[in-house]
Amino acid sequence: MRAPNPSVTQPLVITLAILALVLGGCRTSPRPDTKRDPSIATKAEPDSKVVADTPSVVGLIENVSMYPVPNHQQDLAVSLVVSVRNAGALSTAQGWSLEVSSPSRRVPTVVEPVHVSGYVEMPGTNGTRVDLAKEDLVQKTAQAPIAKGTRVKGILTFVLSKTSEDELSNNHTSFTVHFKDSQSNPYQTPKSVIGGKAQPGAKQLKKSTQ
Question: Model confidence over 142-175: pLDDT tens digits?
C-alpha cells in the first residue's frame, strides 16, 4: 500500500478544521428575538397616568385692602382677595407668601400670611361683610384639596412692618402671591399694581381701606 502524500493530507486537514469552526459558529449563533421590548413599547406611548396625576393651579389677585394694624399703627395690613383654580389632579395649596416690589426701600420684599379673625367688609363686594377666619385662604386650601375644574376664593392677610399706606399708594408698588401645590410645584399670581399705571402684563388694582 502507498503511503499518503503529506503535502496533500495537511492542507486537507486544515480545510476541514476551518469548515467545522464555521459550521459550529452558525449553529451556536443566537436567533434574533422577534418579540417587542416592553420597555420600548412603554416609552413610545405617552404616560397618561403621570399627566393625570399632576396638579395645574392658577392664582389671581382680585382685590386689595390696606389699613393700619389695630394697636400697631406703625404697621400696615394688606388683605388680598385671591382666587385659585385647579385644572389638574386633586391638590391642596400651601406655602403662601407675598412678594412686594416698591420704590420705597423700607417696605419688606417677602412676607408670610397671618391668621386674623373678625368681620370686615370684603374688598370689591360693595358692603358685604365676611368672617376673616372662615375666609382665610391658607386654611381653606390646606384643609380641603382643590378638585379639577374647581375654583376657590378667599382672603390672604399680610403685615408690612413699619410701613404706611402712603408709601404704597400711586407709586407703582406691585404685589405677587407665591404658593405651591401638594407636590411642591411652585406657582405665582400675575403681578398686580396698586394705583398708577399698570406695567405690561400686570393687573391694576384699586385699593380700598377698612
Answer: 988 999 999 999 999 999 999 989 888 878 899 9
Report the SS3 class of residue 87: coil
Closest residue by Cα to residue 84 from 5, 23, 162, 141: 141
Grid cell locating 93: 395649596
Maximum pairwise Cα distance, the chain: 131
Give the C-alpha separation, 75 to 116, whole Å. 15
Q: Which of 181, 64, 59, 176 is nearest to 111 (CA)?
A: 176
Summarised one tens digit per residue, pLDDT across range 37-52 is 554 444 444 454 445 6
Of 195, 177, 176, 179, the residue nearest 187 (C-alpha)? 179
Return d(Cα 11, Cα 14) in angstroms, integer.
5
Q: Which long-range contacts (CB under 8 A, 24 or more apart) does 109-113 make?
A: 111/158, 111/159, 111/160, 112/158, 113/138, 113/156, 113/157, 113/158
